[in-house]
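Good morning,

Attaching, inline, the backbone tokens for the sequence recovery test we're adding to the shared suite. The designed sequence is right after.
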């Protein structure tokens, strides 16, 4: 049996395909690339690997438990004052890396962090409390959508914030024989994937730590959606929620595996997923179906449209000093023109930057076409309001 399944090979460069092959450690490992795949740090975005006895830090990435949540409201989109709502979303929710929640909250997940079985995470409790309910930078968002029947949806995309990032860098340090608190080089994109023995204490510690980061990410997305619902004066009538940067213990081909999905959505038969597109294109809610193709693809699908232009290409080279940015070269994206196009598409935009312009991404319908037969589309969600961090926000989260 071929141990690598590729969806959408014409859309994926050879460098990315070579990277997923380097993640395989032996004939028992299996892998897939989703059609939105592109090169990543040690492991491609859109890359899924099932290991027999390895725990892959690189396959989870820096933003542990990054994921999507979409909630259908009891409000018709036509009844919403978009300008007012998006102003409130952008002012009442923290966007940008490192920013605390404008209104800190209490949550049961803090008790779990304070009593974490992996004790070094307990020291991250203050950071976790400050950032719960914030969205971060990069491609993370809070969006409003209109579905095919005119109903309003709230969609969010982000992960475990600084809590997850510091957990990852701590385990990178431990992988080099240092302590969790030591500062070490994170390595380049071409570095070999960081793998732990599943039976060793280091691997088990990492599993324990990412489970807690996953609970924190779920809590954060719940909190943000609830905040938007309060702004709207509505309630959730249906929701879809899952990680796309995580590790699961699963059975495939009759065997147990440690499966990492990095920028890939689980799509087991009957499982729902929310897949975001760009700030101007239609997103979807999907459901996995049973098929041999889906089985061969490790029951995984895309998590978004997939980049075709790097952030540096889009914005030009940047230099950060004392939290401020200066541009050393011009990028390929004219942000003023891009914003006009987004506005003409009927989207009320708050924040965002040239590296998130629609031209930086593949078309979602194109990548989904390569996964035909593995899932069914339940809802088409047209964006009508988009909120993201401003372009002058530094984003250290590389995945």
């Amino acid at each position: 049996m071929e141990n690598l399944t590729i969806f959408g090979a014409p859309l994926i460069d050879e460098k990315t395909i070579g990277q997923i092959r380097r993640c395989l450690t032996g004939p028992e490992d299996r892998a897939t690339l989703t059609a939105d795949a592109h090169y990543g740090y040690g492991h491609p975005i859109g890359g899924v690997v099932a290991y027999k006895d390895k725990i892959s830090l690189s396959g989870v990435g820096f933003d542990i438990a990054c994921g999507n949540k979409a909630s259908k409201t009891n409000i018709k989109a036509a009844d919403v004052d978009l300008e007012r709502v998006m102003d409130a979303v952008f002012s009442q929710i923290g966007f940008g890396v490192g920013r605390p929640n404008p209104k800190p909250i209490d949550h049961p997940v803090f008790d779990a962090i304070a009593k974490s079985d992996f004790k070094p995470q307990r020291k991250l409790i203050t950071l976790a409390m400050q950032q719960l309910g914030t969205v971060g930078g990069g491609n993370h968002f809070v969006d409003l959508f209109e579905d095919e029947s005119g109903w309003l949806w709230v969609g969010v995309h982000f992960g475990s914030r600084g809590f997850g990032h510091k957990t990852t860098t701590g385990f990178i340090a431990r992988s080099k024989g240092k302590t969790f608190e030591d500062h070490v080089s994170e390595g380049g994109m071409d570095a070999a994937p960081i793998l732990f023995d599943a039976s060793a204490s280091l691997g088990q510690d990492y599993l324990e730590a990412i489970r807690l980061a996953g609970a924190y990410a779920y809590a954060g997305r719940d909190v943000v959606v609830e905040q938007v619902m309060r702004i709207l004066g509505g309630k959730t009538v249906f929701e879809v929620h899952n990680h796309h940067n995580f590790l699961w213990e699963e059975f495939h081909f009759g065997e147990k595996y440690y499966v990492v999905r990095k920028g890939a959505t689980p799509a087991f038969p009957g499982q729902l997923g929310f897949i975001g597109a760009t700030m101007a294109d239609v997103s979807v809610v999907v459901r996995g179906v049973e098929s041999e193709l889906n089985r061969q693809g490790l029951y995984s699908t895309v998590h978004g449209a997939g980049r075709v232009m790097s952030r540096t290409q889009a914005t030009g080279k940047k230099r950060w000093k004392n939290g401020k940015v200066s541009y050393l070269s011009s990028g390929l994206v004219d942000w003023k023109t891009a914003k006009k196009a987004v506005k003409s598409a009927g989207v009320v935009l708050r924040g965002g930057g040239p590296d998130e312009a629609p031209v930086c991404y593949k078309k979602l319908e194109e990548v989904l076409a390569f996964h035909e037969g593995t899932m069914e589309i339940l809802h088409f969600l047209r964006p009508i309001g988009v909120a993201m961090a401003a372009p002058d926000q530094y984003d250290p989260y590389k995945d």
